[in-house]
Amino acid sequence: QVQPVESGGGLVRAGDSLRLSCAASGRTFGSVAMAWFRQAPGKEREFVAGITWQGSNTDYASSVYGRFTISRDNAKNMVYLQMDSLKPEDTSVYYCAADGRAYRAVVMTSAQPYIYWGQGTQVTVAS
C-alpha cells in the first residue's frame, strides 16, 4: 500500500515556476508507477504527468509537455513535479497518485489504474 501526501502548492503569477512534492509512505513505493493529476472546478480530473517505477519512462499531457517535468527519488519515497512557465489555465487542485499494479512498464494516463490518492494541493496561477 502507498499513501501519497502532496505539498508545494500556492499562488503564483503567470510565467513563474513551482515545484510540487509527493511524499509516499509504504514499502511498495519503489515498485509502482506514480502520476500527477489535476482537477479544476467544474471539470473532470485529468492526467498531467506520470513516471514508471524505475523512472525510466515518463509521459505528459500535451497541455504541459515541455513545461512540466516529473521525477522520482525511490530512496526517499518522493515524487516531484517541476512546473515552469505556468499559465492561468494550470490553476487546479493537483493530486499525486500511485498505480495499483507493480512493475508496469508504461505510464497509464487514465485515473482508473491509480488506486492510492493524496488529498491534493491547490495551485493558483494569476494572470
What is the structure about, briefly put?
The protein has 127 residues and is an all-beta fold.
Task: Walk me through the structure.
This protein has 127 residues and is mainly β. The protein has strands at 3-7, 10-13, 18-25, 32-39, 46-51, 58-60, 68-73, 78-83, 92-102, 114-117, 121-126. The strands form 2 sheets. Strands 2, 4, 5, 6, 9, 10 and 11 form a 7-stranded mixed β-sheet that branches. The termini are far apart. The mean pLDDT is 96.
Can you lay out the helices and strands and say which pair or pack?
Blueprint lengths: L2 E5 L2 E4 L4 E8 L6 E8 L6 E6 L6 E3 L7 E6 L4 E6 L8 E11 L11 E4 L3 E6 L1
Radius of gyration: 13 Å
Round the mean pLDDT to the nearest integer and report it: 96
Q: Please tally the helical runs, counting DSSP H or I stretches of 4 or more residues.
A: 0
Amount of helix:
under 10%
Category from helices, strands and their pairing: mainly beta
What fraction strand?
Answer: over 45%
Could you say which overall geometry the principal axes of the C-alpha atoms support? globular
Which terms summarize this structure?
single chain, 127 residues, mainly beta, seven-stranded mixed β-sheet, four-stranded antiparallel β-sheet, 11 strands, globular
